[in-house]
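From the pipeline queue, job 12 of 40. The input is one protein chain; the requested action is below.

Action: predict structure.
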Amino acid sequence: MPRSNSQVRLLALLAVWLLAFYAEAEAQKNIRVGAEQKTAQHFTSLKGQPLELYAFLRKMPKGGDLHLHLSGSVYAESYIEWAAKAKPDLCVDLTTLVLSPCDGSSSRPPASSALTDGVLYRRMIDAWSMRNSELSGLSGHDQFFDAFGKFGAVGSNRYGDMVAELVSRAASEGVSYLEVMLTPDNGKSRIAGGALQWPADDQLAAMSKDELNAFFAKQRQALLQGQVNGSAQESRALLDQIESKRKQLLACDDPNRASPGCKVVVRYIFQLARMAPHSQAFAQMVGAMEAAKADSRLVGMNLVQPEDSRASMNNFPLQMAMLDYINGVKQSEKEYEKAHITLHAGELAPGLVPPEGLRFHIRDSVKKGHAKRVGHGVDIMYEDNPHELLEEMADKNVMVEVCLSSNDKILGVRGKQHPLPIYLKYGVPVALATDDLGISRSDMTQEYLKAVEDHDVGYTQLKGMARASLEHAFIAGKSLWRDAKRAVVVRECERDAAVSNDRSLSAECRRFLESNEKARLQWELEKAYALFEKSCCQKPRNPTSNRP
């Protein structure tokens, strides 16, 4: 049937509109690519100028920090201030620099005396961090892990202050999302685990996988009928307290005074004590699932404490069996799907443990522990069949949380001894993280700088890591990316991809972003990059040009 003149005109108008639309989209894409290339060229010109490079990197949007421990991420100066104000009073041992309740001893003056005694003040900072650690007489490893026990007495009622410090610093250097590790239930699940009837290790070792899973199921039921239910309530109460204090300190409810840190999105990871007795570690896993089910702010669980300790090395195989069981529960009971698993694995180096201890932790964490992300991953090339493992991690999209300063100061692994370039070569997703920036005396910008100076990482690689941090974050909702590795936007927003003004968003893209928190955070990161690259590389004003 022949078309009418009006139909022909309509089709012609549609064709013209489509041509204009795609021409505009292509033009916007070229502008965006051109800005990125210009920024990358400017970045390259700054290599070899660490101060200029740091200033550039500090302004650069960085996405998320997915691996940081709350207590270790606070600077010692803050702990000293809080200790000076603590009630009941806290005192510091002049020999060990350990804080504890005052008892009137002359060798243990009040912590407040450090505010007027400059020598004590600097000694406490050195003891509570890695500052001047080369003069401590301890290895970096021991100096680092010993620090926690020295300031621990002051941190238990300062969680809100601590998070406020973290988000303020994050906002100041372009970090928009944090996943913070802490023990939110104040040990309730561990206490519940202590009451379980638990057989000896040799009896557990003799069980088949089916027998072991049946045993775990029985123990889980006992926990659910007992005190572990209090873990979720305690966790929710603590997170409420943290968020309330954070909002108060940063004036988040006052639009005229609100700190930029108010905009940083925070989620929490439930710490599991890998050095704890088996029953307590298992109870913490169950408690973490219950807490995540009840509170969307808790998004995962992670084994913490030194991976090289005798208890950690001995406990590792059974803990992987526990997590294998936990993953089965997560698969069969969908209300637990929010309790994601990310694991410290491979935070080891030759000489720290016998060679056999370097052979399997990363592989088992991925295969048996079902880790979606691996923290550190330093000893990857000492694993059995490392290249096969790298290919598997790339295929499974298992991300590595790389903590360069931490690996340098704790393990002595830096430069060519660090596997970051190998992960990048094999296409394993990578994101930089701070780990314990307070103790390490670092920040996220320093991690980016270290990646550039030690591993010659380029601008687009850093940008890819920032994008990966949000892509692999445990945030609710769908991703902005249809193909994350090639940065291809989902269909709903593909014609909005170059738009930096939300008022001009299409209705379809707006609905998608409003329904998916992950995509919304990723969109904000892309907007931040568009503005950063647009304003980048302007020629600095000549400071002598206005002189008479």
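Job complete. Confidence is low (pLDDT under 50) at residues 17-31.
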